[in-house]
Specification:
The structure holds two protein chains of two kinds. Chain A is mainly α. Chain A has one domain: MetI-like (MetI-like fold, Orthogonal Bundle). Helix content of chain A is 68%, strand content 1%. In chain A, strands 1-2 form a two-stranded antiparallel ribbon. Chain B folds into two domains: 199 residues, D-Maltodextrin-Binding Protein, domain 2 (3-Layer(aba) Sandwich), CATH 3.40.190; 217 residues, Periplasmic binding protein-like II (D-Maltodextrin-Binding Protein, domain 2, 3-Layer(aba) Sandwich), CATH 3.40.190.10. In chain B, strands 1, 2, 3, 6, 7, 8, 9 and 10 form an eight-stranded mixed sheet that branches. In chain B, strand 1, helix 2 and strand 2 form a beta-alpha-beta unit. The longest helix of chain B is centred in the first third of the chain and has 25 residues. Chain B starts with a helix and ends with a helix. The chains are: A mainly alpha, B alpha/beta. At the A-B interface, helix 2 and helix 12 of A face helix 3, helix 12, helix 19 and helix 20 of B.
Chain lengths: 310, 454
Amino acid sequence: MQRNELKTGLTLISPWLIGFLALTLFPFLASLYWSFCEYDMLGSPRWVGLRNYRRLAAELADGGTFARALANTAYYAVVSVSLSVVMGITLAVSLSQKVRGRAIYRSLCFLPSVVPLVAASVLWMWLLDPQQGLVNGVLQTVHLPAQNWFQSTSSALWPSSWPADHMGRVFGSKDGLVLMSLWGIGNLLIIYLAALGDIPKGLYEAAELDGAGRVRQFLHITLPMLTPVIFFNVVMGLIQSVQAFTQIYLVSDGRGDPAGSTLTLSMHLFLTAFKDLDMGYASAMAWVMFVLVMLVTIWLFRTSRHWVHH
Amino acid sequence: MNVRNLFSAALVIALLVAIVLAVGVRSEGPPIGREEVVFWHFWGGRDRPIVERIVDRFNQSQDRYWVRAIAMPGSNLDLKFFLSVAGGDPPDLLNQDDPIVADWGHRGVLTPLDELATSDELKRLDDWLYPAARQLGTYEGRLYALCNGLDIRALYCNETLLAEHGLELPKTIDDLDLIAETVAPSGETTGRRRMGYLPDPRRLWAWGIVFGGSFANLQATDPAAMVTADSPEIVEALTWMAGYSRRYGPSELAAFRSGEQALTGASFPLLSDRRYAVVMDGQWRVRDLETAESAATANGQVFDRFAVVPLPSPLGGRSEAGWVNGNFFVVPKLAHNKQGAWEFMKFWSGFEGHEAEAAQACAAGGWIPASQQVVDQRAYQQAIERWPLLRTFVRLAASENQVPIPALPVASMYNQEVVRAAQEVLYRGADPAETLQAASARVRVRLEEVLDAR
């Protein structure tokens, strides 16, 4: 009876099992092997030991393409995840207030996240067009300098990257990508709204009796009670931002332009594997990327006990 | 309707769709008794009908082969082709314009043409092709690709605008600098609407050659000596290009260039509100000028006068020089119908008695043929009479100083590294020599690995 049940169970999950083995586990293990090989995907992989990893280390040490890709990815991940947390919570708290038309506002905020990524990217390329885009139009209306967005190598939060003649034009391609990532904040919003709904009302009532105002209630009740969700969103957001590819490919014309300022790890990996036919090196890069994300995630889990209130 | 009926109905509809599709696919097959040649190409837009006419003419001229053309416009044809090769089912023939011959030839993906053509044919082909067309298809002394058209770059100059500033057509680098400074004086001004000339980072490949440099030493046996992007002449060219970035500021340069992305359709920046006095571009813009002139005339507007000149060189540089690329045919190693592919390649490029046909196609598209013998045909001479600006491009096509990206098995990476280095210098203010040295070092490391793997 038990054997029959096992057989039926395996049969029923076989489509997923086959898919997992062929499309996830095999490429996962194969890429580990290839990372120690010279492999162009046309011939057979040839074992070269640690050569690909040594090349990565050398590029990291001398500020080569890999170091650039790593820095770009880190900037994009840190800035976009931080802003998405701040904006997500701000929007969620605002939309949790009992105001007329709340459902409409919530729907409007969620709507962008159902737009396909390619369509959204094309739309953003127009919005951020330095000469004809809506965003620069608004900036100029309020007497702020028009930005060069996807044409610029500058990063707003990295002053050393600002061009000598910037005259306030400090936002560049990575900042444009960060803005695009905030477009999909609707998914986070739903999670924050659900978490806000779960906070016991009694806590606010007790605080009110103790004389706490709205700000203190937010800082000492809302925020701590949201920390498990913030933690979840930070971990997931970090992984997603490291994997981001489609929008970067589209805005950088498939090359990581200008001057490699949008060359993230995923983009560099793609170009190395499929344009330079260097799958061994790309696989090594993928594994380094995997280990780095894992280390950051472990670090987040370790530190979470200090700031996440379960 | 219950679930079972719904499922049955869906199944019947799916079967009907499958049958219709299968019949549809069958009807596209070759005529009985003809061997199919599957041909992938990248041509789209206004060129695609011309390509379809060439294929039709070939099919009509044949009783043995039948070409099925599959258009794949966009930037990833190389990737699609590569995946088809890796999957074991490539097309019989591919028309490409990316620097892939050495990369793929080295990895044994392509059929060398000496396996398709007789030695006599190859010898004739060698004499028949322009030097640049020969270089485009050659890797390690073997021809892997047959060029069917060259893309030549020259300077388009708005003569009317230049005359308004008391300037003449540029003959030297100093002339070009003078044009830039006169039309758009350097200073603190932002939001410029017009420039005399602005170097494009991608065109270091052209200016490097013009300054007398060479991006590779293909005679060298040591991989480290093969890559020469950091040679003094190329550093000098990039330093000169960087002068424009210093003059106007990298931010202003990026802001000015960004406007070009927003130009409607395929507008030629030179034409758009007289944006540039001088701009480097390819022969295809000759047709754009004609279209714009017709539109201006129809609207009763006065149209500026334009001229095309070769890239001006500095003292010690090369004349009639520049970077060339082109369109070429390659036959995958695993192709099913290589002889059919070879026949079609000859037909389109004009080799072995097809010169008149090829001239007709090149004339229709405003393309530059790969051989003087095609240029000499009546149909093409008529095209030159129709578009006199084409004459300079045709003359440049024959020059020994028109050089493609070197045939190294890391050409794709090399191209990217050089362009990125130039962008670093122009947009970030990096040091030309150091940036080119670092880029060259990375390419050398990879080249050594690729050559070792053989």
